[in-house]
Design brief:
The complex is a heterodimer of chains A (646) and B (445).
Chain A: H1 2-37, H2 44-61, H3 73-95, H4 105-136, E1 141-146, H5 150-161, E2 167-174, E3 181-182, E4 185-190, H6 194-201, E5 205-208, H7 215-226, E6 235-238, H8 273-280, E7 284-288, H9 293-303, E8 309-314, H10 317-330, E9 336-340, H11 346-356, E10 360-363, H12 370-375, H13 377-397, E11 402-408, H14 417-432, E12 439-445, E13 447-449, H15 455-464, E14 469-471, E15 477-478, E16 480-482, H16 483-495, E17 501-505, E18 511-512, H17 513-523, E19 534-536, E20 556-558, E21 564-567, H18 574-589, H19 593-603, H20 625-634
Parallel strand pairs in A: 1-2, 1-5, 2-4, 5-6, 7-8, 7-10, 8-9, 10-11, 11-12, 12-17, 13-16, 14-19
Antiparallel strand pairs in A: 3-4, 15-18, 17-21, 20-21
Helix pairs in contact in A: 1-2, 1-4, 2-3, 2-4, 3-4, 8-16, 9-10, 9-16, 11-13, 13-14, 13-18, 14-19, 15-17, 18-19
Chain B: H1 6-19, E1 24-28, H2 34-43, E2 47-51, H3 55-62, H4 73-81, E3 85-88, E4 99-102, H5 117-129, E5 134-138, H6 146-156, E6 166-170, E7 189-193, H7 196-207, E8 213-216, H8 219-250, H9 254-261, H10 286-295, H11 301-327, E9 336-340, H12 355-365, E10 369-373, E11 379-381, E12 387-389, H13 395-400, E13 403-406, H14 415-421, E14 425-427, E15 442-444
The chains are: A alpha/beta (646), B alpha/beta (445).
Chain lengths: 646, 445
Amino acid sequence: MKSTSGSRGIRPLLRAALFATDCVLVAIAVAAAPAIGDVHSASTAELAIIGGIILLVGSYVQIRYESARTFDFHDVLRLFAGALAGAILALLFEQIPTPFSHASGRIVAIAAMTAFVLRMIPRIALVQLRTWWIGRRPDGKRALVVGHGIAAQSVIKAILEDRTMPLVVVGCVDDGVSERRVDGVRVLGDVAQLPDLVRAHAIDVVIVAISAAPLALVNRIKSLCVALPEGLRPRVTVVPEASDLLSERVRVARTQELRIEDVLDRDPVVIDTVGIRPHLEDQVVLVTGAGGSIGGEICRQIATFEPRLLVLLGHGENSLFEIERELREKYRFDRTRIVLADVADGAAIRAVFSAYRPRVVLHAAAHKHVPIVEENVCEAVRNNVLGTKVVALAAAASGAAKFVLLSTDKAVNPTSVMGATKRMAELICQSFAGGSPTEFVSVRFGNVLGSRGSVVPIFRAQVQAGGPLTITHREMLRYFMTIPEAVSLVLQAMSMGLDGEVFVLDMGAPVRIVDLAEAVIRLSGYEPYRDIDIVERGIRPGEKLFEEILTSGEGFTRTSHERLFIAKQERRDYAELCDAIDALRAAIRRNDAHACVDILTRVVPEYRPAASPLPAVASESPQPTTAAVERGVIADFTLTPIEANI
Amino acid sequence: MKLLDAPSLRASALKKKILDRSAVVGVIGIGYVGLPLAVEKAKVGFRVIGYDRNPIRVDQIRQGLNYIRDVNDDELAQAVEAGLLSASSDFGSLDSCDCIVICVPTPLTANKEPDISFIRSVAAEVARELRPGQLICLESTTYPGTTEEVLLAALARSGLQVGEEFFLAFSPERVDPGNARYTTKNTSKVVGGVTPACLDVAATFYAQTIAQVVPVSSPRVAEMTKVFENTFRAVNIALVNEMTLLCDRLGISVWDVLDAAATKPFGIMRFDPGPGVGGHCIPLDPFYLAWKAREYDMNVRFIELAGEINWTMPYFVREKLMRALNENGRSLKGSEIFVLGVAYKHDIEDWRESPALKVIDLLKRDGSRITYHDPHVPSFTDEHGELWHSLPLSREILERADAVLILTDHAAIDYGRVCDAARLVVDTRNATRAVRDGRTNVVLL
């Protein structure tokens, strides 16, 4: 923003200067033309008129001097077109019998072409000067770009064009294919030479700009850099994955900090958009909980499929306003409606579905903070269980084709009220299968990075506050996935046409929270335990050391997508669930949390409520073995049972 | 008082209850037939209970949620809020109803024989709760004789006398889903009672909500009427389909013939040929009749023939497409075919009973590569369990295909653009009728 306003100030001056230079250059071209063409029939006045025409017509076509910021092929074309137009007009003038029209066509042609060539010179010089001037940035950080493809080119271009970016591109490092220059920046060597290059050129930042970079390469670059002694060690930054660019509108305007997801040892998720598109394009889509981190990402990804209308349903007007604005400004998508409604309010939800008749419904509204839910059982049951039933029933009635429940892996053998409510929500969705024209699917998320209230933002905030980072338990294992990845898999699951199924995402290998905490500290430029400490605070009620993605005893089957699995589960009868829901409704009216927990335990027999409100690790010894064995089917998960010795 | 016998007393008592709206109406099966009826009854002031084995439907009614397109959301919600409309899956409360209307489906079995198991099981439920002074009406489409042979037989086991203690009638549904002009309320309705008293009570019952009630002499007449109506359509469609086959041999455009014939103001009705018959009635109902006829040592040749011709249409579409490709020097094997429209009729989402599935299956078996676009069907699952996704209607895809095959004439598709971009268009619905220019690449059925 700043750069444009800056250039606007200098533009009139620049324009005048360039025009003056053009006058001189055209004069030179016209004056030299008779000598070059060896035709001396033209008078000075006639040459002046030819020069005038070439100058004015050329300047008219090449009127946009502001593109002096860059001088690319299009500008050359425009300049040439100007010269051509000038020449044609001058030739036409020669056809009019006046005292000044004797010059041959050759002179006109030579004059125009010479002017064209000459006028390129100050422009090229100006761009070079500007690049040098901006590239100087004495206080800028010195960057090395790894890659030579489109990603690398756009990064270099973005850095060069944005004067506010405190970066100097020192050179490129080739990732295999040898090129000598990438967009004018010299290729200094290959990845193996990275440590030497960093030393030699005093590099501060290494930018990995390879689209869908193989993880192995990224890891190798990181390990090479981390191996350097402190003080020399550069920051490693990876430009956004291809999925972030899916919208095609997001330009690589700014490289991101090394993101926490880079510590996850996985290859990026790739989805089949051909199958997803017809369900969303030109359709009415409704997202509940649209103001949340997951709901918001759902909206972002859906917007790229150009729905006819996207209904954002939620109860916090600020977050809904924010996401709507983001869709409008960043995604240029404005076919949205904001609906403020409580998902458990039957009359309100009925009115929404009657008014919009969405074809696809993504139900992301839920209370999901385990400790908070443990303290607010009734409200959580109302929102997560009753709300799911209300929305699902309305979706089925209004003839929606797809209903997707966003669930969590905490619903597997739940030990928390949150998990139990989500399991019951899954059961509700499954019970609709076959009984309505709508296809119901649930998709279980693991911990997603960056979700509001999830661990990474908390860690970041704790680092900013100077620490310490608090973790539950050193041995706590969690699965992680990025929100965009998880959401793209949700859309994939939606497109699969499988009614009543519960989908499980292959989350990669589980991560120890303590490793994550250390990574966050390191990535923030500190040394764990030395600069910032990590402390254990014990397991809170309802929390588990291990999370299972499947309930024990559940088998699961593959789908057409390698990262999506279906948990085979027993279906529950809708009428039976309705009775339980009625009982829950009555309990909520009495504000009777104990009754709610009792009913949940009956409906979800595998639910083990937290016995006492504080560290009770001994009483809930983890039993990950069965689940771990089954998990072996998903991938190469290995989960060794760890004794809970406190 | 001796002058009035008990049956007519019961009949007039029930009629009085109907007239003053104190009669409770039970509708068994609250789908696209039962629910509009239930709402119409509730609108005029009856207390209506909808019975359904699907607990989701029952719950939706309880929450005031409408799930049938032809029913008005607000009307349903108001009826529920006013306490006039409720729903239940507990058939044990049927004895609280004065008038019971049965609207359960009658599908065909895999062997194309009528499956009246729903009627049988409902009959057993109703018989268990049957009490004097009740009216039972059957609306399900079925073969002639069902009301008396199946329903009456079951109800008689209660020991109550039909026409005296309870009343039984057949009145076929005439619901045309999606038809905005003719709804449950303004479509005339045929009623046939087992006895005159039955007819009297049933006609009174329907007259409360329906503009024109047409009484007939027996349930059989009413049953036959319904099956005949659908057979009429099936046979006429088969007739134009056969004309299409013939015109193809003679090198005449059947569409020109039909357009010209339709100008006659009397003695003709317009039917259009197509790639086969679809939907829930036309392919099914005539077979109830054919099945029943066999019981009486008779073959209803017209119906069988109509079915035969209608079933050959997908094969004819394949042949037509093969010949059109042949003109271009291509074979079906290895060709890319882009199918436009898979729903069974225009502007709807239903693909389940669509002839398009059969056509696609045939073409695939012959080794062509198929993709499709349907603005109303984003995806469908074929009989082999394979999931298909609709592709966007892009110029690139149209240009790439060896042939574009139109199987459903959706209004949302710009056929001018299709004809413009495609190399070859095989149009089985005359959807390109309005395209005037540049249609040398269009082959009609």
